[in-house]
Write a sequence for this structure.
C-alpha cells in the first residue's frame, strides 16, 4: 500500500514496485489523479483526505476489507502547507496530515499488519533535523508557530513514530523504517507561500533538484528489502544507509513514548 500515490514520490514508487511484479494498492487525495495512476498500473485505488480523520477511518475499513494481507504499508502522504489552519478535527493541519493521519491509519491496520509480519515505511525529511523541535504540550504550535517549524515537527514525529512502532511491535514481527528522500522536483509545498515553495514546487530552481523517480529509490529499496537482512527495523535511512545526522530528540525514548500516547489520545485511540 502506498499513500500519497497521486503524484510525486508516491506515484514514482508505485510505478517501480508494479514494474517489479508486486501487487500495489494506491491511495491519494485527488480522485482524478489517483484513478489515473491506478489505471496505468492496473491497481486498486482508494481516496482519502488526511485533513479529515473520518476519511482515514473510512480508508482503514476499506483497505482492511479489500486486502487479505499487507506486506508493506508506505506512509508517504504529506507535504508542506500555507498559513496556519486547523482541520475540522481541531488539529494544526501540517501535524495532522503528516503525522496524526498516518499514525491513525497504521494503528487501525495493526492487527493485519502484525498478522502479515509487515513492514511500515515512513517518508521523512531532513526538515526534521533542520526545523523540528517537539513540545508535547504544544503539538499544534500555538505558542511558536512558523511554517517551517510545523513541517519540521511533523517530520520529527514521523521518525519518533517509526522508532516507537518498532519498540512496541518489533517483537511481534512488525518492522518499521523511515527514509529521507532528499530534495526532488515534486508538488511538495505547492499550496504553501513560504520560502520553500520556489525550491520544491516551481521553476526556475526545479532543475537543481533530483527527480521523483530518483527520490523514490529508497522507498522501493525498503519496500522490497528484507528487514533484518537488507535494513534494520527502527532506523532512519538516508541514501540507503543509517542517517548520519539525526535530530537530537530522536534519541529520547520518553519523548517517543509520550508522542505515541498524545497522538493516540488526539485521534481517539486512547
Amino acid at each position: 500500500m502506498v499513500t500519497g500515490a497521486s503524484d510525486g514520490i508516491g506515484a514514482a514508487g508505485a510505478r517501480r514496485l508494479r514494474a517489479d511484479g508486486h501487487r500495489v494498492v494506491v491511495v491519494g487525495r485527488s480522485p482524478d489523479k489517483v484513478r489515473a495512476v491506478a489505471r496505468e498500473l492496473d491497481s486498486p485505488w482508494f481516496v482519502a483526505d488526511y485533513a479529515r480523520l473520518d476519511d482515514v477511518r473510512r480508508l482503514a475499513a476499506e483497505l482492511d476489507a479489500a486486502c487479505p494481507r499487507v506486506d508493506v504499508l508506505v506512509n508517504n502522504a504529506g507535504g508542506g502547507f500555507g498559513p496556519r489552519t486547523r482541520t475540522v478535527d481541531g488539529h494544526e493541519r501540517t501535524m495532522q496530515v503528516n503525522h496524526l493521519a498516518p499514525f491513525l491509519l497504521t494503528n487501525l491496520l495493526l492487527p493485519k499488519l502484525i498478522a502479515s509480519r509487515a513492514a511500515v515505511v515512513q517518508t521523512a525529511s531532513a526538515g526534521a533535523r533542520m526545523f523540528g523541535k517537539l513540545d508535547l504540550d504544544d503539538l499544534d504550535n500555538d505558542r511558536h508557530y512558523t511554517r517551517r517549524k510545523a513541517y519540521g515537527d511533523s517530520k520529527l514525529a514521523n521518525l519518533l513514530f517509526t522508532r516507537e512502532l518498532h519498540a512496541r511491535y518489533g517483537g511481534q514481527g512488525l518492522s518499521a523504517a523511515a527514509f529521507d528522500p532528499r530534495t526532488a522536483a515534486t508538488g511538495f509545498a505547492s499550496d504553501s507561500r513560504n520560502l520553500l515553495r520556489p525550491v520544491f514546487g516551481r521553476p526556475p530552481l526545479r532543475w537543481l533538484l533530483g527527480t521523483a523517480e530518483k527520490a523514490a529509490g529508497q522507498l522501493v529499496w525498503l519496500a522490497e528489502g528484507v528487514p533484518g537482512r537488507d535494513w534494520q527495523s527502527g532506523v532512519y535511512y538516508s541514501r540507503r544507509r543509517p542517517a548520519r545526522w539525526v535530530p537530537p530528540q530522536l534519541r529520547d525514548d520518553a519523548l517517543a513514548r509520550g508522542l505515541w500516547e498524545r497522538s493516540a489520545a488526539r485521534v481517539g485511540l486512547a
Notes: Residues 185-195, 197-202, 204-209 have pLDDT under 50 and may be disordered.
